[in-house]
Amino acid sequence: MFQPQTEAALSDFIQSANAPLSIKGGGTREYAHVSGDIVDMSGMSGITLYEPGALTVVAKAGTPLKELTQALAAENQRLAFEPMDHRTLLGTTGEPTIGGIVAANISGPRRIAVGACRDFLLGVRFVDGAGAIIKNGGRVMKNVTGYDLVKLMAGAYGTLGVLTEVSFKVLPKVETETTLVFDGLDDATAIRAMSDALCSPYEVTGAAHDPSQGKTYLRLEGFADSVAYRARSLTQLLGRYGTAIQAQTDWDAIRDVAAFADLPGNVWRISTKPSAAPALVAQMNAKAVQYDWGGGLIWALTDDTDLRAKLGHFDGHATLVRGTAPAPRFHPQPAPLAAISAGLRRKFDPRNILNTGLMA
Predict the structure, then answer these.
(1) How is domain 258-322 classified at the architecture level of CATH?
(2) How many other C-beta atoms are found inside a 10 Å radius of the C-beta of residue 223?
(3) For the purposes of burial, counting CB atoms within 10 Å of the CB of 200, is it exposed (0-12), middle (13-18) or buried (19 or more)?
(4) C-alpha to C-alpha distance for 37 and 124, rounded to whole angstroms
């Protein structure tokens, strides 16, 4: 195992590597099928720049998420994209790192309102598979020209380069929040209710449905008077779906799919159109299901080792998050997109040594 302390040391190590490398952040999402010498990025940690007035923060890739969120909270700020903590679902240990979150583009329920992790990235530094140190973007909010490698690195899972530093736009924390909870809606009705809420002017920042509990959740955040007004207005707008109650809801548990934590089975993450979600779920014969993002994200607990075969072709993609299967962990790409992805990997990792096979 190699634990670099500097970007230069990481560059030298990758240049001299003659075998595959397995890139490790906090170890909260282990990929057993990725072999190679471990590159542990936890040694490159720390906040290098934080300007609360400019709503920007820069941190080394190995910085624990906890350290970053605490620093932001001290200034009444936050990472608005609400990154999921996989330890609950996967039963892993360690501490999530900001580099790992960017590499996997981890985002939570608030994505439907504010965007994903990649939408808050301002700049990145990384070392590619040839050992070159690359910088793209910046440390402030401004328009840039050229190729947007910042967005490219978000969701590349370390297959294009090893992140060493990331910069973010951050947002103020909210004064208050409440959740409207509807009881007894079936899946299709719940998705219609969530869609109506998200299309309303009342700024819903979370829309989830738990069929096992028969509950549908709609989150409102902001200043207290605004939240109260929007809650009343949204309750009236959605009156045809029943009477909603206001309740404090554990959105961390929804975000982390805590309901599946102690249940055996494979966990699949399916992204699709909300209107198509109930029909897809009906095909699954799943042991449990949870909807997020207004129905656009389905979490399914099932014994299937190849859920994609059961679903057939659909408008979306399915990722195996927990469990083992003969099928690829990531959804196979259409041929044109696969060709582009392969071309990018040849450019950024010409020796094919970074997290080899992870996204194949």
Answers:
(1) 2-Layer Sandwich (3.30)
(2) 11
(3) middle
(4) 24
| Mean of all residue pLDDT scores within the chain | 94
Q: What is the pLDDT averaged over residues 275-284?
A: 96
Q: CA neighbours within 13 Å on the CB side: how many for 138?
A: 7
Residues 319 and 327: their CA atoms lie apart, in Å, by 10
Q: What are the C-alpha distances in Å from 99 to residues 49, 126, 136?
A: 16, 10, 15
In this structure, whether the domain defined by 7-172 belongs to CATH 3.10.129.10 is answered with: no
Residue 345 near residue 11 (C-beta atoms within 8 A)? no
Q: Tell me the pLDDT tens digit for each residue of 29-61.
A: 876 567 889 999 999 999 999 999 999 999 999
Q: Which two tokens stand for residue 174?
A: 């909210």
Question: Under CATH, which number does the domain 176-255 receive?
Answer: 3.30.70.100
Residue in the block written with tokens 């979306």 = 316
pTM (2 d.p.): 0.93
Task: Report helix angle 187-198 to 277-284, nearest 10.
Answer: 150
- Domain ranges in the chain? 7-172, 176-255, 258-322
